[in-house]
Design brief:
96 residues, mainly beta, seven-stranded antiparallel sheet, 7 strands, 0% helix, disordered N terminus
Length: 96
């Protein structure tokens, strides 16, 4: 697998919304069943590849026009900002 993450166009960016703050915009965001964090990769408008982990109790929603669902290691995962093919680039990075 490649270690270079694709840079999506604006229509596929995942946004992680907080109650009182601007949304974090990432290339891909993952909500994992039974996990206390929303995981995001490659924050938009930053120079370096990065990983964000936001406590689920601070998140009011995650949105993207592009999303998919899958199971991995017995957990249900909803991936935002990626499709069924692109999600393969991130699976090995998930805390599963």
């Amino acid at each position: 697998m490649s270690t270079t993450m694709p840079h999506p166009d604006a229509s596929s960016v995942a946004k992680i919304y907080y109650a009182d703050d601007q949304p974090a915009q990432v290339d891909a965001a993952f909500v994992i069943e039974g996990w206390d964090w929303v995981v995001g990769f490659d924050q938009v408008n930053t120079d370096d590849y990065d990983y964000v982990s936001i406590p689920i109790d601070r998140v009011v929603g995650v949105m993207s026009p592009q999303y998919t669902q899958f199971s991995h290691n017995g957990r249900r995962v909803t991936a935002y900002g990626v499709d069924d093919v692109e999600v393969e680039e991130f699976i090995h990075l998930l805390p599963l």
